[in-house]
Amino acid sequence: MRDAGEKRLEAAKAFEIKGQVKSCEPYGSGHINNTFLLICGEGEQEYSYILQEMNHEVFKDIDGLMKNIKGVTMFLRHQIQENHGDPDRETLNLIPTKDGKVYYMDSLGNYWRAYLFIAGATCYNLVEKPEDFYQSGKAFGRFQCLLADYPADELTETIPNFHNTPVRFEAFEKAVEEDVMGRAAGVNEEIRFVREREKEMGLALSLQKEGKLPLRVSHNDTKLNNIMIDDATGEALCIIDLDTIMPGFSIFDYGDSIRFGANTAEEDEKDLSKVSLSLPLFEIYTKGFLEGSAGRLTETEIEMLPYGAKMMTLECGMRFLTDYLQGDVYFHTSREGHNLDRCHTQFALVADMEKKWEDMKRIVKTYEGAALG
Ligand code: ADP
Ligand code: GN1
Ligand code: MG
User: Fold this and answer.
1) How far does residue 257's CA lie from ligand 2's centre (Å)?
2) Distance from residue 240's CA to the centre of ligand 3 (Å)
3) Domains in the chain, CATH or no CATH each
4) The predicted structure's pLDDT at residue 344
5) What does the pLDDT average to over 173-201?
6) What pTM was computed for the model?
């Protein structure tokens, strides 16, 4: 058996890296892929890359996924160049393999990719400065505009029904029924919390069927630690984690950012008294997102933003609970009950949003005028 280090080394050497591998260590706090900071070089000269072992249990069609990422990053690169930006820092840049491919399959059948490492920028798990959150709202709003002209029919749906909340609910009910770990009896209250809100879950899809909510090319995983903030300028620099780019709803891109970034606690906080929806953060992100989307959103989309926030939080909590019931097979966990702790923060946040619902609607209304131009 080879150890993990040797496996990484084999993968690193498959890419067009400069010089010799100096180190390759786990990096970041993503829940899905295995990410490593790869440092290479010759003598004093060093070059840094991100090396990722993709999660092919989660992403079944790696070929389609990598075609999406290549297409989208080339498209963004072109736009950044036209705007005289820095294409090596403002979008992800794939490093090809030595035989010119966009990913590498190792001798054990694992899939790898490499990116230029973006230095001098940070991904945050908690908002430290409200300005960062405003910047990230603007960037995710603008991201949808930039991709508005991207040929959506060329995109592979990397995870079918990714934000189809009713389908997620069915999966949750199946997990409760099968109860493979014998954990359901211990989470009766959490199960009830989900079931009480079932009726609300289909609203976005109904609006879409009625032609009121458009499908857009969206990111679908817009949490704060999927955006890099420039350490020097404080501006949002680069949107990362492009695995789930596919047609989706703008309200869910907005909502997932609120779920993660407007929470006063981290996603896996054990002390639930720390969890709440910060209305000032909600407001500042809303302002940024609506400014960034530059008049592209329809009235219904804007009106539905609070719903997007609530639904992404409920859906995410339900997904953590499902994974807990299934034995923690999807999200990376690093302690006993980790998924259940995450579920608790999400449900506490949903409950707090319900209390602050009228305020959320009022705040969105305040910025509606500016957004519609
Ligand atoms: P996951 O899907 O597991 O969340 P991500 O693609 O988000 O994986 O990467 C995990 C972490 O690695 C990010 O949160 C970020 O800290 C870091 N990261 C990813 N790509 C880069 C990059 N090109 N430059 C610098 N850091 C990166
Ligand atoms: C996962 O990959 P990462 O860590 O950015 C998940 C999201 C969840 C998020 C919860 C492909 O995001 O959908 O909202 O965890 N990504 C996938 O933190 O399932
Ligand atoms: Mg990520």
Assistant:
1) 12
2) 7
3) 4-62+93-119 (3.30.200), 130-372 (3.90.1200.10)
4) 99
5) 98
6) 0.96
